[in-house]
Write a structure and sequence with these properties.
The complex is a heterodimer of chains A (about 300) and B (about 280). Chain A has 15 helices and no strands. Chain A starts with about 35 loop residues before the first helix and ends with a helix. Chain B has about 280 residues and is an all-alpha fold. Chain B has 12 helices and no strands. In chain B, α6 runs parallel beside α10. The chains are: A mainly alpha (about 300), B mainly alpha (about 280). The interface between A and B is large, with 98 and 93 residues.
Chain lengths: ~300, ~280
């Protein structure tokens, strides 16, 4: 009886004086030898350390290079606080706007069939391929003094470029596709059956959206909002073109960093930068958590079909 | 009489199509399409000759060479090391792997200005890395290359990783039973399966690097004809109120970006055809 259950090379009942033989070592034909593995891991980690870890650590080390007092002073200085306020305003307006757009576009694209869907998808992705400087330039061309609306705006004493509205517009442009891109594939995978069932049961459009569709995509939505927010707060090139760099008024945090750095106030620049770097790390942590949940719900959606 | 040809959308019981599509199109037009068209319309106000002169002047051509060259080199380095990193992340186990995996997205999440000043300080002559090197990196074209490598790092990794994860082990086992060495299996079985994703990631990194501004201008040195990137040149022209010149260069950059986008879509379509989907 016990003879049958022996695993290869092991004799369980041979007594304390006989050592069980280890199974013969077979080289696994689908994996690399250990030295290759270790070299590859080492090379990859070396590359990542050089390009990722060291710059990240450098930001925080340089921020505290002159001590905590200088760090704190840099963060509570009035220009820094106005920059923070402007950054929060820009993100606070662009994220909800793009959220509404993302949900609307995903609803139209995922739940209906119509001509030109692919073209719409490509157009939504356009801001991704446009350089940030050009993103700022286009608003300058429309609302700047020499632009299409320039004269009209000056006559009515409205300032868009070189003022807060221009910064918000540029931020909306660069963060335009983030939420839509997260929602559309997921909602397409989830199909229309649940919504149609809700309709049959008498739900109105808004009820369907609020109680059936959105709960199904909540993790992807959150993921998109996080990415959108990170980009909105960190945008530099586009905002730099439309802002006019007026200290205390039209500078966001990234622009404030540039000013400090160009003024050779390195510790202050890195202090403000460390704030944004901490935001980036929080973004990464949230992204990690949400990504796992989003993958789970995506998998569920695929399995249901 | 067939009505199919006239059908703009298939009938659906779900409400809200007109509202959703209408709002989306309106928003898209006002935020993206009309502003983008402003660049092209502004360029049309100058003659073709002036346009060509502006975008092919020596300083502009020098910026093209730098931007294009550094972006290409950075994308190539990212292709090689991105493949390595995604291989290591998918196939091997090591302590801290999940941390490393999450950190690969740092260039996506970190504001470009922060990356710019961090890299400049690191690679300056008295910086942590700069002092170990016998040549100057900050304020030279080499610095541009370093910054663009940082920026493009996640693109290749994130496009190759899912493909690698989905790769069937049976293919490698079949190759092994047919007598292939591990290297042969990699070169003839695994790599061709990864090639479309690798190409896509390379093109994405390249496209991103071409338009990059924030992380590059701190480390670049920004000297005309030597270390000036094209995006900076646009801003310089704007500051000189040369709107026509700035939009001319912007048109060149936009057309290049759109061509790259087209190329990426073609690669992905080719990949889908190859897989028989």
């Amino acid at each position: 009886m016990s003879a049958v259950i022996h695993s290869m090379g092991k004799r369980a009942d041979a007594g304390p004086l006989v050592r069980p033989l280890a199974p013969p070592r077979v080289r696994d034909a689908v994996s690399e030898p250990a030295w290759v593995r270790r070299t590859l891991i080492g090379a990859a980690l070396a590359f990542l350390t050089l390009f990722l870890f060291v710059p990240l650590v450098a930001v925080f080390v340089q921020a505290f290079a002159k001590g905590v007092d200088v760090y704190w002073a840099a963060l509570t200085e009035s220009d820094a606080l106005s920059a923070l306020k402007l950054t929060l305003i820009a993100a606070g307006i662009s994220v909800p706007l793009n959220l509404v757009f993302g949900v609307a576009a995903a609803w139209a694209i995922a739940k209906f069939d119509f001509r030109g869907k692919n073209l719409l998808l490509t157009l939504i992705d356009l801001p991704f391929s446009v350089s940030p400087v050009i993103a700022g330039l286009i608003y300058l061309l429309i609302f700047g003094l020499q632009g299409w609306c320039g004269e009209w705006l000056r006559d009515h004493d409205l300032k868009i470029v070189f003022a807060v509205p221009g910064i918000v517009l540029a931020t909306v442009f660069v963060t335009f596709p983030f939420i839509a891109r997260e929602l559309i594939p997921l909602m397409q995978a989830q199909g229309q059956e649940q919504e149609e069932a809700a309709r049959v049961l008498g739900a109105s459009g808004w009820q369907i959206l609020w109680r059936v569709t959105l709960p199904n995509v909540k993790w992807a939505l959150l993921y998109g909002v996080i990415l959108c927010n990170a980009r909105a707060m960190g945008e530099f090139g586009a905002v730099s073109v439309v802002s006019g760099h007026i200290r205390g008024q039209t500078n966001t945090l990234p622009l404030h960093i540039e000013i400090l750095y160009n003024d050779y106030q390195f510790a202050a620049a890195f202090a403000v930068a460390s704030l944004l770097a901490a935001l980036a790390l929080v973004t990464l942590v949230l992204k990690y958590i949400v990504e796992r949940r989003a993958k789970a719900s995506h998998q569920e959606a695929r399995n249901e079909h | 009489m067939s009505t199919r040809a006239l059908l703009l959308r298939r009938h659906s019981v779900l409400p809200g199509f007109n509202l959703a599509l209408g709002f989306s199109l309106l928003y898209l037009c006002f935020v993206v399409l009309i502003p983008l068209s402003a660049v092209f319309l502004k360029t049309f106000t100058v003659s073709w000759g002036t346009f060509v002169d502006t975008v092919t002047s020596p300083r502009v051509m020098a910026s093209y060479r730098l931007t294009f060259g550094a972006s290409l080199l950075a994308a190539l380095v990212n292709a090689v090391f991105g493949l390595l990193v995604s291989w290591v992340l998918v196939r091997y186990r090591f302590p801290g792997k999940r941390l490393v995996d999450a950190l690969v997205d740092l260039p996506f999440a970190l504001p470009t200005a922060v990356a710019g000043i961090a890299l400049t300080t690191l690679y300056a002559a008295n910086g942590w890395i700069g002092r170990l090197l016998p040549f100057k990196v900050s304020y030279t074209p080499l610095g541009v290359f370093v910054a663009l490598t940082f920026i493009g790092l996640p693109f290749v990794v994130r496009t190759v990783q899912p493909v690698l994860e989905d790769l069937q082990r049976e293919l490698e086992e079949a190759a092994a039973t047919l007598g292939a060495s591990r290297l042969q299996t990699f070169g003839l079985v695994i790599f061709p399966a990864l090639a479309p994703a690798l190409l896509t990631g390379f093109a994405l990194a390249f496209a991103r690097a071409l338009g990059e501004y924030g992380s590059v201008i701190f480390i670049a040195g920004n000297m005309p004809m030597v270390s000036e990137i094209t995006s900076l040149l646009i801003i310089t022209k704007l500051e000189q109120y040369d709107y026509a010149g700035a939009t001319g260069i912007a048109v060149v950059m936009l057309v290049t970006a759109f061509l790259l986008l087209l190329l990426i879509n073609l690669i992905q379509a080719w990949a889908r055809k190859r897989q028989g989907r």
